[in-house]
Amino acid sequence: MEWRTSDTLVDYPQALAEMEARADAIARGQADELIWLLEHPPLYTAGTSADASDLTDPDRFPVYATRRGGQYTYHGPGQRVVYIQLDLTKRGRDVRKFVCAVEDWLIATLAEFNVKGERRAGRVGVWVVREDKPRTASGALAEDKIAALGIRLKRWVSLHGLSINVDPDLEHFSGIVPCGIAEHGVTSLVDLGLPVGIADVDVALRRTFHQVFDAMPTGPVTRD
Fold first, then answer.
1. What is the DSSP string of 23-43?
2. Most confident stretch, 57-66, 128-137, 195-204, 214-223
3. Rounded to whole angstroms, how far apart are CA atoms 101 and 115?
4. How confident is the model over 75-98, as pLDDT tens digits?
């Protein structure tokens, strides 16, 4: 497996083209699996379930339609994006377990910084409880999204992946309804008061990857 880190901002169309080409090469057995760590310039992406009404400021940043799952997402500097290109023919061909493994990876990475990330039924991504914020109108504790994920498969090779808010400009999320969820906010590691940088998150991602993905079933499955 290859780990690649891009030290400069990567344009979204360039990233899409490279992912598509790499997925084809992996499927043909001509390239290794890839974990690509990068940042994008400010932009919004629309997943296959995106509702146009959730794009509240369409002229603010470039908007890209994409074939990943999910709705509208923001990417920008200070957010670690991880494109995950793994061959699921070697990992059991179970899409649900694969998505759960990506969520587990996010949660394990956040735990490296003593942040408790949690799943929520009916809500995509990873969430943190904000006891420091006022309770909601229903009296429940406030919750903010700290990480997002969106996956697509091509010939059983994964494309797209996850993003972790390290220290992005959180105001940039105001141009969309993130993932179609208006009643909850967004946060970042720095917003939570942690002196964490992108490089620290990269170390945690590498350290926790094998804890999660080595537990998945392995072995070749005949490719369709």
1. HHHHHTTSS--EEEEE---SE
2. 195-204
3. 18
4. 999 999 999 999 999 988 999 999
Q: Name the catalytic one among 81, 147, 179, 186.
A: 179
* Both structure tokens of 103: 């969520």
What is the identity of the amino acid at 7? D
End-to-end CA distance of the chain: 22
Query: What average pLDDT score do residues 178-186 get?
Result: 72
Q: Read off the amino acid at residue 19.
A: M
This prediction has a pTM of 0.92
CB 151 within 8 A of CB 160: yes
Q: Is the dihedral of CA 220, 94, 116, 82 positive or negative?
A: positive
Indicate the range of 12-26, 137-151, 194-208 predicted with least confidence.
137-151
Token pair recorded at residue 117: 């990330």
User: Which neighbouring-strand residues pair with 163?
Assistant: 81, 148
SS3 label, residue 168: coil
Give dist(CA 200, CA 188) in Å, integer.
14
What is the per-residue pLDDT for 224? 55
- 61: its two tokens: 């940043």
Task: Tell me how crowded residue 55 is: count the other CB atoms within 10 A of its CB.
Answer: 18
With CA atoms as reference, report the closest residue to 41 among 26, 60, 28. 60
Known catalytic residue at 179:
yes
